[in-house]
Amino acid sequence: MDFKIVIRFLAPAFIPSHDGRGKPVRNDVEGMWPRARGLSFALVILTFSACAVAQPPRMSSVVQAGDTDPPCTPLGTTFTRTTMYFGLTRSTGMVSETEWQAFLNENVTPRFPDGLTVLEADGQYRQSDGTIVRERSKVLVIFHDQKPATREALETLVVRYKETFAQESVL
User: Could you count the other beta carbons within 10 Å of the beta carbon of residue 50?
Assistant: First the structure.
């Protein structure tokens, strides 16, 4: 785009032809400030146009240490959200809050020390015989990378919970 054309049409709207007292701006001394404002306006237009031509960010791109992005694009890291549902009913009774906290402290937190969210839930599922079963649950939400070690850590949580609390599944 030719910026001379943009400035030629837009600048008159921002550069006054009068000095504010109704007197026309004609000489260099009186006209210096309005011209400086016109130059500032041109610089603002050039700055915004540089951002407009930059590539839009892609959700699938992962920024790693040492990567450089063109100016005006946001930096970020792509995370995956995993939501896991841990039922609290078992054949010998309910998983207690103390047992859940011990599982969380010994198994979950060491594998995901950067953070996680635990929510209380009331869930239901259908057994193989068609019976609907309702139970209290804990919902674990973790935002993480897609490294193989992370996927393995998630799988380990499922196995450990099923073994520890005699569960058929963790969703």
Answer: 12
Four-CA torsion 106, 110, 115, 118, nearest 10 degrees: -20
CATH 2.60.120 matches 80-165: no
- pLDDT (tens digit per residue) in 116-158: 999 999 998 888 899 998 999 999 999 999 999 999 999 999 9
- The helix (H) or strand (E) run that includes residue 134 is strand 132-144
Q: Mention every residue, 6+ apart, whose C-beta is less than 8 A from residue 118.
A: 104, 138, 139, 140, 141
157-108-165 Cα angle (round to 5): 50
What the block records as the tokens of 86 is 């841990």
Structural domain spans, the chain: 1-78, 80-165
Q: Is the Cβ–Cβ distance between 87 and 103 less than 8 Å? A: no
Q: What is the pLDDT of residues 85-99, one digit of tens each?
A: 999 999 899 999 999
